[in-house]
Each structure stands twice: as C-alpha cells, then as structure tokens.
Specification:
The protein is of the alpha/beta class. It is elongated, with a radius of gyration of 34 Å. The chain has three domains: 7-98, no CATH class; 114-213; 243-417, Dna Topoisomerase Vi A Subunit, Chain: A, domain 2. Strands 6-5-8-7-9-10 form a six-stranded mixed β-sheet, sandwiched between helices. Strands 1-2 form a two-stranded antiparallel ribbon. Strands 3-4 form a two-stranded parallel sheet. Helices cover 49% and strands 8% of the residues. Helix 16 links the parallel strand 9 (332-335) and strand 10 (357-358). The longest helix has 17 residues, at 100-116. The protein has 19 helices and ten strands.
C-alpha cells in the first residue's frame, strides 16, 4: 500500500526530472538476487548526480558515475527520519517494487494451478501442453481470473457433448445464456474447439499438438471449424455444401433419402439428426472428387452403378460426416481425384482421415492417362505434393508436367463402377 512520502524525500528524490533515475534504482531491487551491498550508477546527468550526492553525502563535484554503499545509505535515511531504506524511499514515491524472478515464479504457479483444476479430461490434457496454455493466456489477456472463468464456461459446453444434431446457437444459449457465445472467434468457442481437436487427435492417434496446429493439407479454416463441431454432433451452417452420392445401400428396415439411379444430396443436418443405416459392411464404396463424375455415372449406369460418394473438392463437414459414417459401417472406401497438386492434397487427406485406398490413382494410372490425353503445353506447375499412397506419382507428374482432370478418365472409372 502506498504511503505519503516524507516532504524532505520528495524534495531530494521525488522531482519529475529524477523519474529516470528512480526507475534505474528500482530495477536494481527488481532484478537483484539477493540485492548487492554496493550499487554503481553510471551515465548520470547533473541533476541526478546532485540528488544522489545529497542522499549519500558524496562530493557535490559532478561525475558521471557514483558507487553507493546501500547499508550506509539505508542507515542515513533511517537516522534522518526520511525513510527506512532506499527501497522504502522508492516505494513511497512510486509504489511497490516487485522482484521479477519471484513474480514470474508465482505467475507460473498460478497458471499451472488453473490448468490443474480443470475437470474436463480433454481440456485438462490440452492445457498441459505449452502451446495450449499460451493460447489460454492470450484468450484471457494474461488475466488468471479471466482464464478460470473461460475454463469454467468451456467445461459447461464440453459436458453437453457429444450432441446429436444440436444447433451451435442453441448449444450456446442453453449452456452460456448467449446464442452468439460460441460464434467463430469468441474466446470460449476457441477454447472448446481446441479441446475437441485435442480429443479427436488423441483418439485418432495423432500427436499432442495437433489441437493447436494446422496442416497445409487441411480445408479452409471455416470448414475445419465446422467439421470439428460436426464431429461433436453440433450443427454450424448445417445446410451448406451438402454431400453428393449415388446408390448408397441401406438396411432393408430403413427408408432414407435417395432415389436409386439418381444423384442425391444429404445435408449435414440430415446426416447428424437422422444417421443413415448403411448396408456396406465389407463392400467397396467408391469416392470421387468431382460432381461431374457422379452425373456421368448416373447417366451411363443409373441404378446399376456401384455405390459412389463425392467429396466435391476438399471435403467439408457434410462430406466428412458421410465418409465417416460409411467407414464406421464397414465400407472399404476407394478414392479417385484429379491428377494435379490440389487433387493429391485432397487424396492425402481423404486416405488419412477415412482409411481409404487409392482407386486408379497411382503413377501407372497417371502415365496411361497422360499418354492418351492431348495436351498443347504443360500446365501442372512445380509446387509438388507427395502422394502418401504412391511415392512414384509426384515424380511422374513433375516429369510429364500435365494436370489431368478426373472427368478426362471418366470412361475408365465408369467401367469400374459397372456392377
């Protein structure tokens, strides 16, 4: 608690012109461990030298540096009734001096206690990582009490999950009293998403930092976030980018959306609120990248086409939900996409996330397609992406230099889809 400084001390050391000097003196006590008996002050101006000389009894003749015997100075200040010590004098003038090393240790202990007190398992494990603890500090603006409040609110949300087709706004309103509290960019939403990602990464066998890091092979951020919510059964923009499919078989007891032989769409809302009972255990389900392939297959084969799903580029939440449900039902997914670097990136993602196998997407398939396709000039570019399923594919694509759209090999794909 600040004390009113002695008037003589104010006159000796409290002048505004001596602010920089007082700051330098305070740094000695903030940093010293333990404080040294002698303090050397350099680069003094005339006013600063005069103030130190009056305090210590040093010669008034100006010099740029002075050595201060702290014990002697403290005794002089006490005997004069000005202050109990130099440190006491500085605190009287400018407030408490905090020892930095001690303050840092205390801060670390407080933040560690905040993380340790977390009750939700995935969130607690997340906060044990340095990157996630740093995220919490940023969200709380370095305020430990605010961090505790954020954790408590995040836990309230996480305890309601997983849900089954619950709108994010409804989840926010029911748990936090504000329908927008879980909107993108809100602190609680950011913390919940990080905890969910960490939990999913752990269950999928990924590394601990996967929750707070991103990969170059992932979809745009808004789609990634929507997908994380979807995996927890929460709907965000539930009607955006519905999943396209053709002839996905269902159990005989279930009637669900879809007409045999006709391309059909399923929204994220439908997939999560009324999960289909797919009859695909042990069966091949083909997956393509481009909607045009589904249209061609429907035109050529109709209800004689093998089960086919479409990622429509990098799969968004609805597409990922559909592929996850097919994989969980026991389908053996076979994936094909464009022979370009974006296509390889998408294929890497699909194969990794859903244990899909390649479908006519190897180096030999590319060489055959490149030989048969008329190209005026190379159009692929050099930003190569390695194919996780075939190390020879990227070098073959670099050598040829041609991007090949999936539609260009549709005839070959249709032969595979004929059942």
């Amino acid at each position: 608690m600040n004390r009113t400084p002695d008037a003589r001390l104010e006159k000796l050391l409290g002048d505004e012109a001596l602010t920089a000097l007082r700051r330098r003196l305070r740094r000695h006590f903030e940093r010293a461990e333990p404080p040294s008996a002698v303090l050397r002050i350099s680069d003094l101006d005339a006013a600063e030298h005069e103030a130190i000389a009056l305090l210590t009894g040093a010669s008034p003749r100006y010099t740029k540096s002075l050595r201060i015997d702290l014990a002697r100075l403290d005794a002089t200040l006490r005997e004069a009734g000005v202050a109990a010590s130099l440190r006491d004098a500085l605190e009287s003038l400018d407030g408490p001096i905090v020892h930095r090393a001690t303050a840092r240790a205390e801060a670390r202990a407080r933040w560690s206690a905040v993380a340790a007190d977390c009750r939700h398992d995935a969130l607690r494990r997340l906060l044990q990582t340095p990157a996630a603890l740093g995220l919490l500090k940023r969200l709380a603006r370095q305020d430990v009490d605010e961090a505790s409040r954020l954790i408590a609110r995040a836990e309230t949300v996480l305890q309601r999950l997983p849900a089954r087709g619950l709108a994010r706004a409804q989840l926010a309103a029911e748990t936090l009293g504000d329908a927008h509290a879980l909107d993108g960019g809100q602190p609680v939403a950011t913390l919940v998403i990080a905890a969910l990602r960490h939990g999913f990464a752990s269950s999928d066998g990924a590394g601990g930092n996967a929750a707070v890091e991103t990969s170059n092979e992932r979809a745009p951020d808004d789609e990634r976030i929507r997908d994380v919510w979807a995996r927890a059964g929460v709907l965000v923009n539930e009607l955006a980018r519905p999943a396209l499919f053709l002839n996905l078989p269902l159990r005989a007891s279930q009637t669900w959306l879809g007409t045999p032989g006709e391309p059909c769409y399923a929204s994220l809302r439908q997939l999560l609120r009324s999960p289909p009972a797919f009859e695909v255990a042990g069966r091949e389900v083909f997956v393509c990248e481009n909607p045009n392939v589904v249209a061609i297959a429907a035109d050529r084969l109709g209800d004689r086409c093998a089960p086919l799903a479409c990622t429509d580029g990098m799969p968004a939440a609805a597409q990922r939900a559909l592929l996850a449900q097919l994989a969980s039902a026991g389908a053996r997914l076979r994936y094909h996409g464009d022979f370009d670097w974006a296509g390889v990136r998408i294929a890497n993602q699909v194969m990794r996330a859903f244990d899909a196998k390649q479908w006519r997407l190897g180096a030999d398939d590319y060489e055959a397609a490149a030989s048969a396709a008329p190209h005026a000039r190379p159009n692929l570019g050099n930003a190569a992406v390695a194919a996780s399923w075939d190390a020879a594919l990227a070098p073959a694509m670099l050598r040829r230099g041609f991007a090949i759209a999936e539609e260009a090999v549709a005839a070959t794909l249709i032969d595979d889809l004929r059942r």
